[in-house]
Amino acid sequence: MALGLAIGLAATPALAQPIPVTVALDWTPNTNHVGLFVAQAKGFYDEAGLDVEILPYSDTSAGTLVANHVADFGILGSIGLFTQRTAGADLVATYALVQTETGRLVFNADRQDIQSPRDLDGKVYGGFGSAWENALIGTIIRHDGGTGDFETVTLGTSAYEALANGAVDFTLEVYTWEGVKAERDGPAQRAFRYADFGVPDQHTNFIGTSSAYLADNAETAKAFIAASQRGYEYAVANPDEAAGILVTGNADAALDRDFVRASLQALIDGHYLKAENGAIGTIDPAKMDAVGTFLFETHILKDGNGAAVAVKPDFTTYYSNAYLDSAP
After folding, report:
1. Distance from C-alpha of 125 to C-alpha of 163, rounded to nearest angstrom
2. Partner of 168 for a Cys bridge, out of 66, 100, 126, 306, CB 3.0 to 4.6 A?
3. Is the backbone peptide bond immediately before 20 cis, with ω within 30 degrees of 0?
4. Quick check: 208 and 63 in contact, CB under 8 A?
5. Could you tell me the pTM of the whole model?
6. For residues 224 and 21, is the Cβ–Cβ distance under 8 A?
7. Cα radius of gyration rounded to whole Å, the chain
8. What string of DSSP letters covers 131-167?
């Protein structure tokens, strides 16, 4: 009997240890990240055999952390993905956080002198210092018949206060965060949606990793993306609970629960997290090619030496849907 017990114990494999995975945020915790915190709190990562650490936001971009293998995954902005990847960074988008653009061009609702984008000619823009902004705004104005000439004052996030007090005429914002705040707290705003004025619609941000990580950890990547996808699905179906998870899981951020709940509802109602056709996490090849082409044609894409690329890159290498739970 003792011999049989010993043989049985020897034949039993040791319990598998969870695989560590790190994910870097692109900003302080907000509703774009809600699925990650839900997946962590509800045990979806644990069930997938993963020990996921959500790294705190830092001054180093998530794309840089991922490309240099400091973080396994990161939240990548669309423009950052295209520009960094073209310049040589090892980045691959593996999950579309939103199915359509969340950004918009905004101005105070009482500005009767602004009725269409061409009225922005000669106005003052409170900006963030990127070449993308100039290409974006210039395209919007010219599409409406204007010249695309405007003055830029680089303010960063102070642009929102400057807009509210009238120090600048217009700025860009994320509707599902700053826009919701303006709806709740004022002043009232009006807006132009990028895609209505000649700018391609896009997935504003992604969960991404590096091709090196995917090559060595394909199954772990698939498990992480699938569990994250499950977290976002749960957040859409259970917004009250999901908002509470985000707030309580980030006590240091002092998030306003009512505001977080309103922001999450805007993401749900606008079919940002989950499209009307049910798509969640899926990266649209047509959108990727359209945005990449726009960036190429406006000379925003540069190589590692800072020179505008002369040949349009193969944008199909910039992303993959293969790690989604229901990959096409």
Report:
1. 9
2. 126
3. no
4. yes
5. 0.93
6. yes
7. 22
8. HHHHHHHHHHHHHTT-----EEEE-GGGHHHHHHTTS
With contact defined as beta carbons under 8 Å apart, do 217 and 20 qualify? no
pLDDT in tens, 82-141: 999 999 999 999 999 999 999 999 999 999 999 999 999 999 999 999 999 999 999 999
Of the candidates 82, 64, 34, 19, which has an alpha carbon nearest to the alpha carbon of residue 218?
Answer: 19
Domains, the chain? 19-100+204-318 (3.40.190.10), 103-196 (3.40.190.10)
Closest CA to 130 of 67, 75, 194, 79: 79
pLDDT of amino acid 15: 60
Residues in the chain: 328
Strands 189-192 and 103-108: antiparallel
User: Are residues 120 and 142 in contact, defined by beta-carbon separation less than 8 angstroms?
Assistant: no
Query: CA 84 to CA 74: how far, in whole Å?
Result: 13
The long-range contacts involving 257-265, CB below 8 angstroms and separated by at least 24 positions, are: 259/180, 259/181, 259/184, 260/30, 260/31, 262/180, 262/183, 262/184, 263/30, 263/31, 263/176, 263/177, 263/180, 264/31, 264/34, 264/235, 264/239, 265/239
Which two structure tokens, joined as six digits, stand for 56?
């705190």
Token reading at 104: 């918009």
Cα–Cα distance, 101 to 99 (Å, whole number): 7
**Nearest CA-CA partner of 74 in 32, 44, 38, 45:** 32
**pLDDT, tens digit, for every residue of 308-317?**
999 999 999 9
Give 227: exposed, middle or buried? Use CB within 10 Å, 0-12, 13-18, 19+: buried
Closest CA to 82 of 268, 240, 314: 314
Residue 27 burial (CB < 10 Å; 0-12/13-18/19+)? middle
Structure tokens given for 4 = 């049989």
